[in-house]
Amino acid sequence: MVILPELVLAAGALALFLVSLGKTPSARTAKSVAVVFGLATFAAALFTFQSQDILFYGAYAVDSYSQLFKALIGFSLALLLIFGQNLKGIRLDVRPEYYLFLLLSVLGLMMLVSSVELIAIFISLELSSFALYLLVPMRDDRTGSRVQMEAGIKYILFGVMATGFMLYGMSLLYGLTGTTYLKEIVAFLAKGSLQPTVLVAVLLVLIGFFYKLAVFPLHFWVPDVYQGASNETAGFIATLPKFGAVALLIRFLSVPTNHVQFLTELMAVLALCSMFYGNLSALVQKDIKRMLGFSGIAHAGFVLLGLLALDHDGYGVAIYYIAGYVLMNLACFLVISNVSQAGENLRIEDFNGLYKRQPVLAFVLAVGLFGLAGIPPFVGFMGKFMILTSALRAEHLVVVCLAAINTAIALYYYLSVVKAAYTAEPGELPQVEAHPVIQLTGVVLVLVIILLGALPARFIDFASSVAQTLH
Amino acid sequence: MELLLIKEGFPLLSFLIFLPLAGSIALLFFHGQTFARLWTLLITSLTAVCSLPLLFGFDPASSKYQFAEAYAWIPRLNINYIVGLDGISILLVLLTTLIMPFCVLASWKYIQQRVAPFMFCLLVMETSMVGVFVALDFVLFYIFWEFMLIPMYLLIAVWGGPRKAYASIKFFLYTLAGSVLLLVAIIALYLESGSFFIPEMMWQPYSLTFQVLVFLAFFLAFAIKVPMFPFHTWLPAAHVEAPTAGSVILASVLLKMGTYGMLRFCLPITPDATLLLAQPILWLSIAGIIYGGFTALAQQDMKKLIAYSSVGHMGFVTLGIFVLNGRGVEGAMLQMINHGVTTGALFLCVGMIYERTHSRELALSMGVGKYMPWFVTFLAFFSLSSFGFPGTNSFIGEFLVLAGTFEHSTSLALAAIPGAVLAAAYMLRMLQKVVWGGTANPDQSYLTDLGPREIAVLAPFLLFVFWIGLGPQPFINLMHTSVSALLNQLHHWQQHQQVAAVLWN
């Protein structure tokens, strides 16, 4: 029963498969099944929060580290399924399949955070990725321009390339150490006599997760995929997979390479490139999802900055940051997918006067964006503050100053959306209907964003102590 | 922690911080216009009344932080919730709490659309303003300092004038851009001193390079907030577009945060850098005084005129702070209060005439004296106070600042004096036009004079204009011990450094 969340997800996927078999698959049934299983997953993740076990010949570890991530993934999934339940951009007849692949992708992520063996890691990552690749082109083709196909093919091609690099790195690691178990690899390499190949191998593996996280040189897919995917799918791509990427980055950074200096410098440079590239490109975006995509690249840079310290304090902060980032992004996508009338993409001026059209959603959007911009008392500020502290403690003064300047750049584009929502006149734009449940979800998100930001001590302490158990 | 006088029993300062916040939550659930107005008036008045015990319980003979409270907040980084009050902050806290009910009254009729959210922003604003002045932990300070931008942004952006989008975004970007490096400086100080507790960061032997870098980061953030010439360009835009209450808060309280920051942080945390860099800042202040005066002289929009006059007045404040002597600093602090009272009242006056003529243009408000005798009486007194007429509050403040400047350097003081003359010129020009106008006055006969509510709003300001003008001693007594303790330590530090310099050579 220690893998209850995974079992629930698998059961949910099977149930949706059965639903999809019907001659005229009912979108309503699919939705209810998905929401019920989403909530059940979260409940199961909480229920198994304290579990500790090693399964499948040591390839699968259920420990406090993985359970923390599973709880975070479960919570985000439940929120995502609740507010994205209208699925405006997905054809009616493929909705059961859509949910089926969504749950499978989450299943892959849950397995990923528990995997401690190279092949298990690879299989979970591919399960999660391929299900996700399929979600992108499932968007209905109302414009006729088939952007979703372009996005889907880009996503899969870049993804496969990154996977190739990672697989190559894994093979090198296996060749050097003769084992596929992370623990044994670490123990073997810690004994000394390290070859430079180790560094190459670790870097190649990291590339795979940099791709998921959208760090600078591996970010190409982000804006196009965000734009091409339906609003709900983009909301999923922007949030949950980041947990998996951060969890595995932290696991792999504990592999000794003997070139710590080089690794930290490389990560600092990548972090800065991500921030500047992401923020400067986001400044000129008209499409809100593209903007959030570029902002996601910048935030990935911030996460790397937290990992820079290469100690459990930094890891704890990075986990805190990514959790906050996902929550704030969920808040933004909640608004996007409900302001969108029929699942179309939104330009920034489509938010004009949202304050008059739907005050609650405007408030949720403002909190999400101010949080992403790093204004206190939201979680984005505390995360930024903690990351800058841990990076400055590791004596990266220049990097910290440049990162701080980046937050000022970023403010402009976040604020331009808030400006549209609060100062522009709505003009001809229609009223926005939002179901009370969705409004309630938004308010819950706002509360969590504020509480996690105002009282971060317990979460960070817990995350750091959990990260400490890895070594 | 021996610097704190922990207050046993009722946590008064926390109560003052969080009462408005708690009050604002009620406005989320009840949206009635009348309810929102009355409720906010009640909450702000209650806060004002509850802040009076600070005055009675304050021991002016001690330079310690009084009414202090300390709780652990984020132990792993040694971040605590610490608040306290000393002679430098007490008057600013009282100014904030006392001015808020009048902001509510001033918005009584001015704000007709979306009243409850407006009042919500006002209350949240009050929480963060009080928080800034009493926070003794740097992270806590920074959170209040930055958080304030959101309600202020919304006050301008939603309820502002025609160019509200431009003005609000400029305000937000300028102030935030200024304070990002402040955050880095705070973290660097923490790593050097091991604590975010502000008094523990003071008078530490940091290296000179470190001090200069930290000072510059501080100075950029605070100079933009003040705003000092040449960082002032956001102020006229924000003032012109903000609703009356927003302008009053901006002028009376927000600008003081910059100068408060300089006194509280720059001087004691980076004393060497302060001594090193005081001279250019003094000349920047002079530039601000002269520039503000000349620009104000040319304005056609009354709010812009007062906004530029603020640049000049705040120049006097920074001048007083950085001459680094008792008269100068006390004069500067008094001038902070004076500017809060006088300029706040002037913005209220402009708001009242705007409610009637729907214009802030001087040309359209000419010659209202005949129809609004009460109004012009108040306006005359506040204008006199604004250019430092003897018997009014600003006279005392500017006099002390100038006396301190003469003590420091005669040429500097002589350079500042034209500013005082310019102030008289632009204020009298405005007064002349509004009261009498010329031969081509527009028809003002439809105007009605001030009602009882408006007189009740302005009268307390007038009381303080004359109280500080005729009997400033009680106000100076409150701040004297803290200011002289600060300056003594600074001079002690300076001599100590000179001894070190002699030893080195």
Your description of this structure?
The complex is a heterodimer of chains A (471) and B (505). Chain A is an all-alpha fold and 471 residues long. Helices cover 74% and strands 1% of the residues of chain A. Chain A has helices at residues 4-21, 27-47, 64-83, 95-114, 118-135, 147-177, 182-190, 196-213, 221-228, 231-237, 240-253, 260-283, 288-307, 312-339, 354-357, 359-373, 379-393, 397-422, 436-454, 457-468; strands at 53-55, 60-62. Chain A has a two-stranded antiparallel sheet. In chain A, a hairpin with a 4-residue loop joins strand 1 (53-55) and strand 2 (60-62). Chain B has one domain. Helix content of chain B is 74%, strand content 4%. Chain B contains 19 helices and 3 strands. Chain B is globular, with a radius of gyration of 22 Å. The two termini of chain B are 37 Å apart. At the A-B interface, helix 17, helix 18 and helix 20 of A face helix 5, helix 6 and helix 7 of B.
Class by helix and strand content of chain B?
A: mainly alpha
Helicity range of chain A: over 70%
Largest sheet: spatial strand order of chain A: 1-2
End-to-end Cα distance of chain A: 26 Å
Largest interface, chains and sizes: A-B, 33 and 32 residues
Q: What string gives the helices and strands of chain B in order?
A: EHHEEHHHHHHHHHHHHHHHHH
What's the SSE pattern of chain A? HHEEHHHHHHHHHHHHHHHHHH
Compute the average pLDDT of chain A.
89
Our measurement of the CA-to-CA distance between the termini of chain B, rounded to an integer number of angstroms, reads 37 Å
The backbone outline of chain A, from C-alpha atoms, is globular
Helix content of chain B: over 70%
Q: How many whole angstroms does the radius of gyration of chain A measure? A: 21 Å
- Alpha carbon gyration radius of chain B: 22 Å
Q: Please list the strands of the largest sheet of chain B in the order they lie side by side.
A: 1-2-3
Number of helices of chain B: 19
Note the overall shape of chain B.
globular
Number of strands of chain B: 3
